[in-house]
Inverse folding.
């Protein structure tokens, strides 16, 4: 085969691969299952760079033991290179940005940097909204009961009676962990009968309106992600129609143009 033929074959191979990827993405299929394993993973607050994290996390589980919200898990066998390391799946439970960041302070290896135990240093990732037309706020619908019930299932501290009734009360005898998790549900209870804005109402960022707010859109309302978002994932946990995602380790300026309606 001549050099020219070799070059032509290489070119066809490259352009065909790009073409297939474009077709898949045009059909809304962005990643093959085998590529999904390499998607960035949401780490607990204070995590050092992913490269460093993979070297430093010793899979000890200290961070998840002290997390009062049970937000942290250790990766199972599907975790590939980082099997056994700490991560957060925001669909199951976001990070509630505890004031003193006990996870960071408990980490013995430096995988979670103790120096970052202040909200101004937390940059877990950035929230993005896909398919805004599915947002319940656009048509003023309240969250479906099944979605509220599902959030009750995210907590492991409830009594059988509370699980059954989907109603919690503070008795004064709770541990700090029980109280914090019940506080989430008590707040949720005040929101379940109003038009959905759970993502914005439940955002734990200390000045939440700097991270997310509701704005007018198409005759209704829609959530707007703002500059202070730290990617804690609570809005993902709350969203009844699953249209919010966290892009780990990205900042606002990596994704958004300031002042532009981001839909
Ligand atoms: S800040 Fe709090 S809620 Fe978030 S992961 Fe750490 S301990 Fe858990
Ligand atoms: S405490 Fe630190 S080293 Fe231990 S599992 Fe959590 S992140 Fe990894
Ligand atoms: S908008 Fe709020 S709840 Fe959602 S990821 Fe950002 S800081 Fe967390």
């Amino acid at each position: 085969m001549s050099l020219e033929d070799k070059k032509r074959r290489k070119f066809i191979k490259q352009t065909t691969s790009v073409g297939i990827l474009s077709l898949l993405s045009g059909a809304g299929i962005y990643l093959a299952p085998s590529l999904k394993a390499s998607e960035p993973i949401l780490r607990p607050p204070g995590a050092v760079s992913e490269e460093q994290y993979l070297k430093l996390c010793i899979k000890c589980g200290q961070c998840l033991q002290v997390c009062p919200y049970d937000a942290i898990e250790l990766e199972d066998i599907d975790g590939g290179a980082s099997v056994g390391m700490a991560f957060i799946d925001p669909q199951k439970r976001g990070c509630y940005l505890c004031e003193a960041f006990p996870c960071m302070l408990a980490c013995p290896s430096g995988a979670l940097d103790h120096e970052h135990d202040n909200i101004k240093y937390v940059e877990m990732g950035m929230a993005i909204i896909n398919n805004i037309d599915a947002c319940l706020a656009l048509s003023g619908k309240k969250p479906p009961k099944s979605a509220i019930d599902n959030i009750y299932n995210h907590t492991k501290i409830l009594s059988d009676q509370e699980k059954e009734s989907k109603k919690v009360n503070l008795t004064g005898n709770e541990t700090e962990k029980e109280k914090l998790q019940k506080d989430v549900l008590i707040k949720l209870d005040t929101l379940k009968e109003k038009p959905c804005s759970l993502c914005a109402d439940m955002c734990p960022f200390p000045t939440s309106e700097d991270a997310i707010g509701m704005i007018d859109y198409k005759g209704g309302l829609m959530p707007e992600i703002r500059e202070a978002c730290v990617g804690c994932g609570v809005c993902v946990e709350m969203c009844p129609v699953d249209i919010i995602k966290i892009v780990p380790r990205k900042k606002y300026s990596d994704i958004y143009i300031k002042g532009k309606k981001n839909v």
Observations:
- The domain at 38-122 is CATH 3.30.70 (Alpha-Beta Plaits).
- Residues 227 and 258 are 8 Å apart (CA to CA).
- The longest helix spans residues 3-26.
